[in-house]
Amino acid sequence: MRVLVIDDEPDVVEIVRLTFNLRWPEAEVFAMKTGEEGVTAVEADTPDIVILDIGLPDIDGFEVLQRIRAFSDVPVVMLSARHEEVDKVKGLELGADDYVTKPFSHIELLARVRAVLRRTESQVPASEGPPFEAGPLRIDYAAREVTVDDESVKLTPIEYGLLYHLTRNENRVLTFRTLLA
C-alpha cells in the first residue's frame, strides 16, 4: 500500500507513518510538505490513499483536495487541527472520504482508513455494461464518467458508487444496508 501524507509537521507525518506501519508493515508512507508538492505527487505516484492536512504553508488543504478531485478518485482522509463543524462539512462536501481531527487516536485513524478502503475497494468494475442514460443524465461505466446535459460532473468514489448501484438496480428497492455493503 502506498500512502501519501500531505502535512508540513514532521511529527504528525512520523506518527501517521508509525500508525500505518503497525497495521500494514509493508505500507510505503511518503510525505509532501506543501499542497503543490502533494498535488504533483498524486498525479505522478498514484497513491492508494492520501492523508491531507488543511493548514499547509502554500495553499490550504481544501484547494489541494479540489485540485486532486479534478483528476483523481484516490481516497482522501482529511487530518486537521480544525475541529469546527463548518470545516468538517466543507472537506466532506469537496470530496474528502473522511475527516479526522488532531490530536487523533491511532486506532480511530486506522479504523477510518480501513472503512474508506473497504468502501473504495468494493466499487464496481469500471467496464461493466453499456452507458446508462435517463433524460440529461449519462453514466459511462467503462470510463467512470458522469455527465448532465453533456457537462462532466465530478463525484467522489462514494458518490459514484452510490449512483452506480442505484442505476444498476433501476426499479428495485434497495435497503440502506445493501447500499452500504
Short characterization:
With 181 residues, the chain is an alpha/beta fold. The protein has seven helices and nine strands. Strand 3 (49-52), helix 3 and strand 4 form a beta-alpha-beta unit.
Report on the structure:
With 181 residues, the protein is an alpha/beta fold. The protein has two domains: 2-121, Response regulator (Rossmann fold, 3-Layer(aba) Sandwich); 132-180, Winged helix-like DNA-binding domain superfamily/Winged helix DNA-binding domain (Arc Repressor Mutant, subunit A, Orthogonal Bundle), CATH 1.10.10. Helix content is 42%, strand content 20%. It is built from seven helices and nine strands. The chain has helices at 10-23, 35-45, 61-69, 85-93, 106-121, 157-168, 176-180, and strands at 2-6, 28-32, 49-52, 76-80, 98-101, 132-134, 137-140, 145-148, 151-153. The chain has a five-stranded parallel beta sheet, with helices on both faces. Strands 6-7-8-9 form a four-stranded antiparallel beta sheet, covered by helices on one side. The longest helix has 16 residues, at 106-121. It starts with a strand and ends with a helix. The mean pLDDT is 87.
